[in-house]
Amino acid sequence: MSDGLVELTTEQRVRLLQIARKTIFHWVSRNTYPSLEEEDQRLNSMEGAFVSLHIGDRLRGCIGRFDGSAPLYKTVMEMAVGAAFEDPRCPPLRTDEVPRTDIELSILSPLEVVDASAVDVGKHGLLISQGRARGTLLPQVATQFEWTREEFLSQTCQKGGMDAAAWQQDDCVIQVFEADVFSESQMRPVR
To answer: Which end of the chain is more exposed for a tag (fewer CB within 10 A), N or C?
Structure first.
């Protein structure tokens, strides 16, 4: 990867998890974002992020943004609300579910176009595009399911509504990214 991924410090990770949780609590009770300011330069950098929510082993929402169009802490706030209340695959998070929800953040490196042979399972996440179809899977998904490179490529295509073998076609664009992945359950206590 050309730009590489610079991991956050433990304090920055804890702060972003606190921001995500506070945002979800604030949204469920007031339907607005909390008023927050961040002085940490890295948390104000323009970076993409995904927020994944789990209750036990069940996914309760996952939404993200690749582009760094807002400061990182604000992107985390927006994606936390998106994951909790706007993921079309899951019903909106109920008030009683919020305390039981484990928040996982994936802070993203910039996207890089590669050949399929350059995909490194366990290191890379994928964004595969063919025409208007786009499929995305975070790096931890391939590791969780113990997929081979070909399985990871095929699953990403299928998630985007493409044929499983679309990644082998000339009109398909394969982009990789790295992610600094951490969750509340790994970093307890954060509240």
So the answer is: C
